[in-house]
Amino acid sequence: MSRTFRAILALAMLALLAAPARAQQAAAVTLKGQTLFKLHTGVGSITAAERADVVNRRLARLTSGTLYATTPNVEKTEIGWMIKVGKQPVLLVTDADARAEKMDGEALAKHWASLLGSALVESRSASLRDLLWRLAVTFIVLACGIGLLLGLRWGRKHLEGWLEARRERLPALRLRELELVSNQKVYAGLRTALRFASLFLALIVVIAAALLIFDQFPATRGYTESVLLWIWQPLRNILFGVLNYLPNLFYILVIVVVTRVVLQVLSFIITQAERGVISLAPWVHRDVARPTGTLIKAIVVILALFFIAPLVPGTGSRAAQAITLILGLMVSFGSTSTVGNVIAGIVLTYMRPFRLGERVNVGNITGDVVEKTFLYTKIRTIKNEEVIVPSLQAISGAITNYSALAPRLGLILHTTVTIGYDAPWRKVHELLLGAAAKTKDTLKDPAPFVWQTALNDFFVSYQLNVYTNRANRMMAIYAEIHQNIQDAFNEAGVEILSPHYYQLRDGNATSIPGPQAPQAAPRRFLVDAQVTEPAP
C-alpha cells in the first residue's frame, strides 16, 4: 500500500474509534436510476446519506463513458473491506454495515460487489445499445441534412431557370408613366433575394443538424443547450424590439418611400432636360443639368436623413453622439483639400468654361475633356494621355477653350514665318494664302488672311491666319499648314529664313525689290586695299 492510502485508513480508524457507528435512516446506492442496495450506517461524522451520495457520484463518473470496467473486486483493509472497480475505489464496507445487515462483513462486501457487477454489465450493455442508436440517429440526421441541402440547391437552380425564362416578361415597377424600376432591375432583385433565401435556409439546415447530432451524446449535450440559448435570447430580444419599434419603422418607411419618389421624379426631369426634351433655362442650362440634379438629390437625401435620424434606436445615446463627433472631426481635418475641390468643382460647373468633348487648355495641359466631376476634370491629350486636373488647380489658373466659338465664329489658327526684305511682300502673301487654301478642315468663309506683324532689322514677320470649325484637329491642321507653306515657298524659289547682314557696305545693290528700287546709284565709299609682298 502507498503511504497516502495508509494515512487515509488511519484517519478512518480514528474516526471509527472517536465516534462509533449509529443507526441512521437508510440511503440508497443507485446506478442510472436502479437501486443496488442501501446504507444504514454512517462512518464517523459522515452520515449514511452522505456516504451514499459519494458512492453514487463515483459510480456516475465511472459509467460516464461507453466502455468501462464491469468486474468489481473486494480487498481486505485494516478497517473493513474495500469494493473496487478496476483501480477505482467505490465503497468501504465496515463492521457496522455487517451488523446492520446481520451478515458477515466479507460476505456482505462480496454480495454488494456482485450486485454492483451485475448492474455495471447491464448498464454497459444499455450504453452500447444507446450508442448504436445515437450513431444511427446521427447518420439519419446527416443523410436528411445532406438531402435537404441538395434539395435546396436543386430548387434554387430550377427557380433561377424559371426566372431566366421570364426575364424579358417581368413587369417593371411604374408610377403612372414614370418607370421607377426597370424589369431588368426587378429580375436582378428577385435573383439576389432567391440566393439569400437559399443561403439562409441552408444555414438553418446546417445548424439544426448540428444541434440534433450534439444532442445525441452526453459530452456535447451541454453545447446544444448553450447554442439554443444563444440563438433564442437574441431572437427573443429582436422580436420584442421590432414589435416595440413598429410605429417608428412605419414613419421611416413613409419617409423612404416619399424620398424615393421625389428622387425618381428629379431623375426623370433632369434626364429629359439633359436630352433637350424640356428646357429649364435660364435657371438650369442643358450642359449643367446632370450636376444640378446630383446636388438637388444630395440635398433631398440629407433632409430625409435629418427626419429619419431621431427615429433610429440609439441615435440619442452618448455613444452615438461621441462617434458622430469623432467622425465629424476626422472629416474636418482629413478632407480639407477634398472639400476645397468639391467647392471649386461646383463653381466650375456653373461657370460653364467647357463641356465634354471640347478641346481646352487647363493648367498648361491641352487636350479633349473626357470626364467632368466636382472633384476633378479628366483630359485626354493628343498623345492619348489621360491627365486628371483637380478642380482647385483648374479654377486657380487660366482656362482656354478652343471649341466654344469654333462652330459659330470659327477658331483662328495662326503661324508666323520670317522672310527677308528682298522677297516682295505681295508674293509672300500669295504663297501663304495658297498654302492655306490647300489645307484640309480650314474654312473658305471667313477667308484666311495674312498680317505683317513686325518689320525687323533684317527680315519681315508674316502671320498667316486661317479659320476652322474642327478645334479637335488643330494640331493636325497646324502640321498640314506648315507642310503646305514649305512646298509653296520651295516651288516659288523663296527661302524661309531670317537673314542677318554682317558686311561692310561699299555701294552694292540695294535690297529694295522690284520697281520700287531707287534708280540713282547709292552713295558709296571705296576701300583701297594693297597687297604687299612679305619681307624676306
Jot down its keywords.
4 domains; 536 residues; SH3 type barrels; alpha+beta; 5-stranded antiparallel β-sheet; elongated
Written overview of the protein:
With 536 residues, the protein is of the alpha+beta class. It folds into four domains: 3-132, no CATH class; 149-269, no CATH class; 344-401, Roll (SH3 type barrels); 411-492, 2-Layer Sandwich (Alpha-Beta Plaits), CATH 3.30.70. Helices cover 52% and strands 17% of the residues. The protein is built from twelve helices and 15 strands. It has helices at 3-18, 48-62, 95-101, 105-165, 183-214, 218-275, 289-308, 318-334, 336-351, 391-395, 425-437, 474-492; strands at residues 23-31, 34-41, 72-76, 81-85, 88-93, 173-175, 178-181, 359-362, 365-372, 376-381, 386-390, 399-401, 411-420, 449-455, 459-468. The strands form five sheets. The chain has a five-stranded antiparallel sheet. A three-stranded antiparallel sheet has the order 3-4-5. A hairpin with a 2-residue loop joins strand 8 (359-362) and strand 9. Helix 5 packs antiparallel against helix 6, helix 6 crosses helix 7 and helix 11 crosses helix 12 (474-492). The longest helix is centred in the N-terminal third of the chain and has 61 residues, at 105-165. The radius of gyration is 52 Å and the shape is elongated. The N and C termini lie far apart (145 Å).
Arithmetic mean of pLDDT: 79
Q: Count the DSSP helices.
A: 12
Within the largest sheet, what's the order of strands?
11-10-9-8-12
Question: Structural class per helix/strand content?
Answer: alpha+beta
SSE arrangement, N to C: HEEHEEEHHEEHHHHHEEEEHEEHEEH
Q: Tell me the distance between the termini.
A: 145 Å
The parts where pLDDT drops under 50 for at least 5 residues are 7-11, 13-22
Strand fraction equals: 15-25%
